Amino acid sequence: MTQAFPRGLPFMKMHGAGNDFVVIDSRGRGAVTTPALARAVGDRNRGVGFDQLAEIRDSDVADFALDFWNSDGSRAGACGNASRCVSDYMMQQTGRDAVSFVTQRGRLHALRLADGRVSVNMGAPQRDWAEVPLAHAADTLHLPLPGDPVAIGMGNPHCVFFVADAEAVDLPAEGRRFETDPLFPQRTNVEFASLTAPDRLRMRVWERGAGITLACGSGACATAVAAHLRGLTGRHVTLDLDGGVLEIDWRDDGVWMAGPVARSFDGVLPPAFLDGLL
């Protein structure tokens, strides 16, 4: 398939609060990303590097569709910050301040706020053990794991710990440990959060298939939902992550997330790089 790109494969590098992405626009030609391509492009030493890869596809029921890949070549069911970044790109293309798109979560919506930030509706949280999913029935508000975490699904499974000081957590060790716990048959993202004000949290995250990231949109949503369900906060929560600030608002129509977006640069993956990856 490399011959289909004699001049290489164009891409964009974007980030939302430091959560960085390679974005491939495949509208008009069909999806091209393979596990091998995602791994190669995701290599920060030999490729481009990213937390997730987002591929834009055509959709018959929305303005566009999105597929997400982790840097280890596995698929991601949702990526809130990438959704916001791509929505910003699509709003610039269309001259509109709102777009709809389709992911594994279904049809979602995004809009541009007056201050320039982009807000996306990530859909309703998945609170039943089978939806998260867990390997067996369990109380998702009090998982039978050390640290008494909460399980929330936001298209991806999340394991949320509330701790006295998120900064003190050994994130590499604890994130890796719980990502692959047998309770999570699809692995899980792992969040550690501490309450810093009545409706403000400090959060750090380990993402399945990516490791430590500066921010995680679906993780921020899951953490805000878990904090409200535990009685720690209201439904409108501000989260301070390593890469910036995200604002979460759990409404009747879904969990809305607002934050900054940025387009860092554009590039082209040359044919020689693509050889054997498509």
Characterize the structure shown.
The chain has 278 residues and is of the alpha+beta class. It has 2 domains: 2-122 and 261-274, Diaminopimelate Epimerase, Chain A, domain 1 (Roll), CATH 3.10.310.10; 150-252, Diaminopimelate Epimerase, Chain A, domain 1 (Roll), CATH 3.10.310.10. Helices cover 18% and strands 38% of the residues. The protein is built from 5 helices and 17 strands. It has helices spanning 35-42, 80-94, 171-179, 217-229, 271-274, and strands spanning 9-16, 19-25, 52-57, 64-70, 75-76, 98-103, 106-112, 118-121, 150-153, 157-162, 189-197, 200-207, 211-213, 236-241, 244-251, 254-259, 262-269. It has a 17-stranded mixed beta sheet that branches. The protein is globular, with a radius of gyration of 18 Å. The mean pLDDT is 97.
